[in-house]
Design a protein that fits this description.
This protein has helices at residues 2-27, 74-77, and strands spanning 35-42, 46-51, 58-60, 88-89, 97-101, 107-111, 114-115, 137-139. The strands form 3 sheets. The chain has a 3-stranded mixed beta sheet, with no helix packed on it. Strands 5-6-7 form a 3-stranded antiparallel beta sheet, with no helix packed on it. Strands 3-8 form a two-stranded antiparallel ribbon. The longest helix has 26 residues, at 2-27. Residues 12-33 have low confidence and may be disordered. By secondary structure, it is of the alpha+beta class.
Length: 142
């Protein structure tokens, strides 16, 4: 009986180790491979910044350098963008990006001092539905 129990325990431990090795490659993306910001181009809009998944990033004309003035209900439509500073930037100078701490304590990525946002109505990569909204929201341009 002892040898049967030992075989079951050994099998379980080996199975867990194999599963750990198999799935560990899928759960981790090395920072040097993770693209945080890219430059895209679209007719009628020109060049603009996107996140690593090609979702468009926006700036708010009522923001100040290093300060977000979008709060409350504004955030329902314009969620802040944040990416780890170690993420790769393609097509822009990494030195143009920084991070601010918002009033609620969360972090937000800035480009040349201006906070970056998503638009809730952009459903697909490359959508630019927020460009020009109320004359104060624009795609972030490199």
């Amino acid at each position: 009986m002892y040898s049967v129990l030992l075989k079951k325990i050994t099998f379980f431990v080996v199975l867990m180790l194999v599963m750990g090795l198999v799935f560990s490659g899928y759960s981790t993306v090395r920072a040097e491979e993770a693209v945080g910001v890219k430059v895209a181009e679209k007719e009628g809009v020109g060049q603009f910044l996107t996140d690593g998944s090609n979702m468009t990033l926006y700036t708010f004309a009522n923001d100040e350098s290093g300060v977000s003035n979008c709060s409350g209900e504004c955030l329902d439509k314009w969620p802040p963008f944040y990416v780890d500073p170690a993420a790769v930037v393609e097509g822009c100078d990494v030195g143009d990006f920084s991070t601010i701490t918002r009033e609620d304590g969360s972090e937000q990525t800035t480009y040349k001092g201006m906070p970056l946002y998503y638009f809730f109505n952009d459903n697909n990569p490359g959508d630019t539905n927020g460009h020009g909204v109320k004359g104060v929201w624009f795609v972030a341009t490199p």
